[in-house]
Amino acid sequence: APDMPVIDQAYSKLSNSITVEWRPVPGATNYMLTAEDGDSFIETIVKNSPGTVTGLKPATLYRITVRSINSGGKSQPSPSRKVKTVLAAPILSVRSLTCDSIAVSWKAVPMAAGFSVSLMRSDGLGRMLKQNTTNTSLIFTNLDPGTLYTIKAYAWNANGMPGDDFTYNQRTSPNAPVDVKVAFNSGALRAVVSWMPTEGALTYSVTVFSGLLKLRCNTSSASCVVPSLQCSSQYYVSVTAYNEAGSSEPTDAVSLKTVPCAPVNISIEEDEPAHLLVSWSSVSLGHYYVVFVKSDDGLEVHCNTSYTQCHFQSDCGFTYFISVFAYNEAGQSPLGDVFNYTTAPCCPSEFRAVFTSSDTVRVTWAPVRGADLYETRAAGGSGAVLCRDTATACTLSALRCSTPYNITVYSFSEARGSNTSCVPQHVATAPCSPEIKNISKEGLSVISVHWQPNNEEAMYVVTARGEAGFWHCTSTRNSCTLMDLPCGSAFSVSAIARSPAGQSLPSYSIPLETAPCCPNDLTLAQVTQSVTNISWSVGRGAQTYVTALESPKGQAKCHTLQTYCLLGCITCGTNYTVSLRAISETGLTSSCTYQGYSSSPCCPSGVKLYRLSNDGIRVFWRASDETINYKADLHGSKGNFSCTPSLGLSLCDITKIPCGDVYTVVVAPVTDKEPKLTFCPKKIYSVTCSGSSVGMVISRGKSNVKHI
After folding, report:
1. 186-217 pLDDT, tens per residue?
2. First CA to last CA across the chain, in angstroms?
3. Strand 404-413 vs strand 616-622: parallel, antiparallel, or unpaired?
4. Dihedral of the CA atoms 394, 395, 401, 403 (nearest 10)?
5. Confidence at residue 91, expressed as pLDDT on a 0 to 100 scale
6. Are 344 and 413 in contact (CB under 8 A)?
7. In whole angstroms, what is the distance from residue 177 CA to residue 345 CA?
8. Contact 439/451 with Cβ under 8 angstroms?
9. Is the per-residue pLDDT at 693 higher than 70?
10. Which CATH number fits domain 264-343: 2.60.40.10, 2.60.40.1080, 3.40.50.10320, 3.40.640.10?
């Protein structure tokens, strides 16, 4: 085993250890240090001197020995040394009371007679502060705010031996920020708070409060955004700086007024035509108001006022978009509700009323702005006529004739309704149709027309229309006379009324027929001694005719559809009056008179032939009237012969008659009329050439040819 070492010195610098120094022992590879306090011991193996025994109790007396060790074993313990460990270090509790002070406190340390505490900026700047005390706390003041300080403390015993020291780093709390500024964003209703950074501050807290409402914003920078502010509110803003030591005092509150809230209870009305009144409720913190009015054609106007209403000029048929903003030094209020107001549509212009009939008027007008529908109202008489349409034209029917009407065209819109300020137009309907009461004949071509007058200040026009043309008469009364109407014509008679308002519808037509015309030409031709043929030209309008020949001796009459007639039972040599009645299909009659007619003289009777000497023939007859001259005609194959006696004689002679021939003998009165009479009886005689006696045989037919 190696030799026993000898302790040179033993001392304690820390409260939990003792350091031992000795001279090296040849051949020793390790050393064992032993510390005993009577209750326990602690051993420590070290390589060489010096060596330290740790894990000891502070302020405790220990007996220290050293033994050398090698592979051969351990030496004997060295002579012991008594060493007392130093005092334990005080355990500090440190805090920054204010931004310029630090409070240090600790628990009492056993065996300590006093304490020494020193403080110095950790960055080495400035001087060190040191205080000795027998108390267990002290305060350092007049320090730099927000600065990191190093604090060192130890206790000493009655011999003045210092114990372990305790080191603690503590920062003072920061100073309150300065130059606080508040920038308000009116559009986003938020505030940006900024300040100058303060020494030693790690974070900042911005407090915004208004009454019971508090908003906070924490940041490590020198600005902070406070969102969600209320409009029309006054806030107070303060900033507090923070670090690990605590907080600064809050800054003096900075006043912040937010923008006013958007005005509410907005009402829009047309207080008078073409004027809009916009009103609203007063807004807290609102200093003045601006009303913007934009029409749907893009034109915008505004009104700036400190009151709660504004007047604007407006036009009909426009839609206005209205917004109201409140203002103060913070800016413009948020956008509130945008109201739209549509004014009543314009009254129609270019009004035109045209009567299509006496009871129907077509009204047209130019389209107007803002109108979705039009109503045309005609008020007059005892009621009103309505017409509604989206078109710019309307036909009002069933109007009362001869009546003044006030016609108004109203425009409607779905948004605003009707424009009730439209001015009516005064229109009078055309006169009422007259009613023909009676048509009377005043003469052959004169007709008087009577009607019921049913209009005031109207001119009545009566018209007779027919194939023959038009005839008119006018009157302001209840009748007029149609003159010179042609005979034999059919007319349709109607009446109209005229006034400055127009012309009525025609009345119902009354048929009118004039008496048929008398034939212009009438011819009488005697067919036989007792039969006369009467013919005439067509009488316009006549369907049948009645002709008559009248004399004291009698009457001959004929009713026919033709334009001629044979009248029998005519007495020869008689003067007749000639009459004709033209009768229409409806029975109208025109009595026509003509020049008198004389029938031809009567044919002689008893015609006989007597043979004379030297080839002569005497014709003898019995005259019906001695004042009439007669003529005898003989017609044969060998020649024609005639003789005319003097007035008053009833015989005449014809000489040189060839015998041996058959003659037709006619004795007829001689008249100045053409043609000559051909209806007297004819006798046929045969004149022979033998014999000398003269005889007479009267024959009445070709089958009874007699010879003389």
Report:
1. 878 889 999 999 999 999 999 999 988 889 99
2. 242
3. unpaired
4. 0
5. 93
6. yes
7. 64
8. no
9. no
10. 2.60.40.10
pTM, to two decimals: 0.55
Sign of CA dihedral 281, 284, 288, 292: negative
Sign of CA dihedral 290, 294, 298, 300: negative
Residue whose tokens read 């009402």: 267
The string of DSSP letters for 653-693 reads EE-S--SSEEEEEEEEE--SSSS----S-EEEEEE-SS-S-
Q: Provide the β-strand partners of residue 396.
A: 361
1, 70 in Cβ contact below 8 A?
yes
Distance set, CA 102 to CA 97, 121, 173, 199 (Å) = 6, 12, 9, 16
Positive or negative: CA dihedral 292, 295, 301, 305: negative
CATH topology of domain 522-599: Immunoglobulin-like (2.60.40)
CA 554 to CA 569: how far, in whole Å? 9
What's the mean pLDDT in 332-347? Answer: 90
Contact between 164 and 156 (Cβ < 8 Å)? no
Strand partners for 492: 465, 511
Provide the 8-state DSSP code for 222: S
Residue owning tokens 């200040």: 457
Kindly report whether the peptide bond that precedes residue 2 is cis, defined as omega within 30 degrees of 0: no
- How would DSSP label each residue in 457-495? S-EEEEEEEETTEEEEEEESSSEEEE--PPTT-EEEEEE
Just give the CATH number of 605-700: 2.60.40.10
Give the whole-angstrom CA distance, residue 376 versus residue 418. Answer: 12
pLDDT tens for each residue of 279-321 = 999 999 999 999 999 998 889 999 999 999 999 999 988 999 9
pLDDT above 50 for 703:
no
In the beta sheet, which residues pair with residue 659? none
The CATH superfamily holding the domain 178-257 is Immunoglobulins (2.60.40.10)
d(CA 587, CA 590): 10
Fold match between domain 264-343 and domain 522-599: yes
Contact partners, residue 68, CB within 8 Å, separation at least 6: 1, 2, 3, 4, 5, 25, 27, 28, 30, 31, 74, 75
Task: Tell how strand 17-22 and strand 101-106 pair up.
Answer: unpaired
Structure tokens at 394: 């309307």
464 Cβ neighbours under 8 A, 6+ residues apart: 447, 470, 471, 472, 482, 485, 491, 492, 493, 512
Q: CB-based contacts of 33: which residues, under 8 Å, 6+ apart?
A: 20, 43, 44, 45, 46, 51, 52, 53, 64, 65, 66
Domain 6-84: give its CATH architecture: Sandwich (2.60)
Give 78-117 as a 3 state SS string. CCCEEEECCCCCCCEEEEEEECCEEEEEECCCCCCCEEEE
SS3 of 37, please? coil
Alpha carbons 284 and 326: distance in angstroms, whole number: 9
Q: Identify whether the C-beta of residue 459 lies closer than 8 Å to the C-beta of residue 498.
A: yes
Instruction: Name the residue ranges covered by the structural domains of the chain.
Output: 6-84, 92-171, 178-257, 264-343, 355-368+384-428, 435-513, 522-599, 605-700
What the block records as the tokens of 511 is 């048929």
CA atoms within 13 A on the CB side of 495: 33
Q: What is 435-513's CATH topology?
A: Immunoglobulin-like (2.60.40)
Q: Which CATH class is domain 92-171?
A: mainly beta
Phi-psi region of 124 (alpha: psi -120 to 50; beta: other; left: phi over 0): left
Integer Cα distance of 65 and 43 in angstroms? 10
